[in-house]
Design brief:
alpha/beta, Rossmann fold, six-stranded parallel β-sheet, 10 helices, 8 strands, globular
Length: about 230
């Protein structure tokens, strides 16, 4: 893709709970190849430890990442990262939200312990089941990198966060077989925010790690070229 066609100069990618910036490897490569400056850092635990980490701690990190990159800039977030992106919408010129945890919360989700042991309890079989659209290599790549997560962060996100409708253009990518964030929840969010909605095949993490992730990233770049930024 010709980088001269891209109005956006920078992209910040925010990963989901229990993951890391590695989730965005395919997307980051596509955006960087188009000439954008790209950042996909890992969210970090607070100095007091993972159990003491809050949603506000993570949101402040995202704000700092954005401040370090030139505008116009797009903020791309998946799952918990999608909510964090929405919380920082005022610092972005466009948002791409992939199966985002919704601002209204997920009231049926279970309460989490202080530390959710996703890294310690991960299995290759479970990872494979969660990534129906990925190949075996991608599933193994993910299995080796899951990490534990703050229960307080997840409980706060599941309870909901009061957010205004973003003023920047918003794209919501919705996995049709998502078992974590019901697709209808994402469809409703897109309608409420007058956002562009793209239903895509696969499960919760497939847009990032599935076989079609590079093509979906290219498609998102094309959407950015057509958005009024």
């Amino acid at each position: 893709m010709d980088s001269t066609q891209i109005a956006i100069r920078s992209a910040v990618f925010v990963h989901g709970a229990g993951g890391g910036g590695w989730e965005w490897t395919a997307w980051a490569r596509v955006f960087a190849a188009a000439g954008l400056s790209v950042a996909a850092p890992d969210l970090r635990a607070a100095p007091a430890g993972l159990a003491a980490t809050t949603l506000a701690d993570y949101s402040a990190q995202v704000a700092g990442w954005l401040d370090a990159l030139a505008r116009p800039r797009v903020l791309v977030g998946a799952s918990l990262g999608g909510l964090l992106a929405a919380m920082n919408a005022g610092k972005a010129d466009a948002l791409v939200l992939v199966n985002p945890m919704p601002p209204q919360g997920l009231p049926d989700a279970p309460q989490r312990p202080a530390v959710v042991p996703w890294g310690r309890s991960a299995s290759l079989a479970g990872t494979r089941a969660a990534l129906p659209g990925a190949d075996d290599a991608a599933a193994l790549f993910a299995f080796r990198r899951w990490r534990d997560e703050s229960g307080a962060v997840l409980n706060q996100a599941q309870a909901g966060v009061a957010l205004a409708r973003p003023s920047a253009p918003v794209l919501v990518i919705i996995s049709e077989s998502d078992q974590d964030v019901p697709p209808q929840v994402s469809i409703d969010l897109a309608k409420t925010w007058a956002a562009t909605a793209w239903p895509v095949p696969g499960g919760h993490v497939d847009p990032l790690l599935g076989r079609d992730a590079p093509a979906l990233a290219e498609r998102a770049l094309r959407w950015l070229t057509k958005s009024r930024l």
